[in-house]
Known about the structure:
The protein has two domains: 26-130, Sandwich (Immunoglobulin-like); 138-235, Cadherins (Immunoglobulin-like, Sandwich). It is mainly β.
Amino acid sequence: MVRAEDAGIPSKASSTNVRVRISDSNDNSPAFNDADYTFHITENQPISTSVGIVQASDIDNGTHAKLVYSIMSGENSNHFSIHPVEGTLYTAVVLDRETVKEYRIKVKASDSAAFPNDLSNITNVYITVLDQNDNNPSFSLPFYNASVPENSPSGTSVTMVTADDRDTDANAELTYSISHSSSVEYLSIDSATGEVTVKNAFDYEATKVINVTITAQDNGIIRLSGSVSLVIYIEDVNDNNPVIERG
């Protein structure tokens, strides 16, 4: 209320109610609900798969509190997109954990005040790409050759084969097995190490070459495998006496 009074005797006065409207000044920057954000997503998901939501607020009013979200330019930042109003992050490419397994992107929340009075804030978003069993085991060589003397006892080491899997955890844990082209199982393999050893003794005079197939299989829910050929050459040992033929 405002009152005005003159200086007369007697004085006269009058009063009126005054309403004061305070206009908002854009004096508060947007504030994210969390200091940083951490999300996880499995690789190979289709483009536009939701990753997570970032949210900010602004205690100003009107357009000063209307926020717009954007992803700041940076390494691999184009692998994601963001809804400008809702703050939902989406994949912009099909993610491959074996290429990039962790991302750190910066998201900016800007109010809608006119430039140069607009204010903004930035948060870090950490995205971990989870593994999917999408890689077959592969051997270090395209094929293997080895030799072993005939009559070698069971357990004699013949060679070692090694395979690798670009996946991780159980999807990269390998189990080795061996299959023979003949009815006799001359060789065995350590399922964990890939060491090939003699199982049944060979006789050079009966068998000179042994062909087997080595398989490495991962332990994923849907198991993938890779195979390689192994050729074993039997070395002759002087284990036969000369035979004199009578004319």
